[in-house]
Amino acid sequence: xxxxxxxxxxxxxxxxxxxxxxxxxxxxxxxxxxxxxxxxxxxxxxxxxxxxxxxxxxxxxxxxxxxxxxxxxxxxxxxxxxxxxxxxxxxxxxxxxxxxxxxxxxxxxxxxxxxxxxxxxxxxxxxxxxxxxxxxxxxxxxxxxxxxxxxxxxxxxxxxxxxxxxxxxxxxxxxxxxxxxxxxxxxxx
Length: 189
Hints:
Elements: H1 9-12, E1 14-19, H2 22-39, E2 43-45, H3 59-71, E3 76-81, H4 89-98, E4 109-114, H5 133-140, E5 144-148, H6 153-166
Parallel strand pairs: 1-2, 1-3, 3-4, 4-5
């Protein structure tokens, strides 16, 4: 099946979980899902929507609900990287769970997308110490890649599909110690 944009939806449409800094980057997450799930229909969103989870639940309960209701069924995790995304304990946890292979959870592919709010957006290189550390280690071992924000559906579809293909060809690195709390400072190392 092809859309009016010439995108091959049957072969390359994947279930995508989007991880991001909720307070700072909600606008980009909304735009990402509207463009690529609703308008261009190149992915199935498996992301948590506002109002899906009671914010008063305990952290462990929220994590269990995200793992069982969203991450378990996804095949690729996209990390939208704004200026402070690397500091977020939930982003670290979501990356860790998504690349872990278990009996009940298959491993997801992984990509990062630098948002225009990130200080290194649009540059030839990015500072690895201001992206999530678990993502950085997986870029280093070629399990994941980082790209600049782009609204071209063909390009995004290719990034997602390549991450999907890599998920079973390369073993991810999940050795970085999990965040107990959100971080602060200018960089993680």
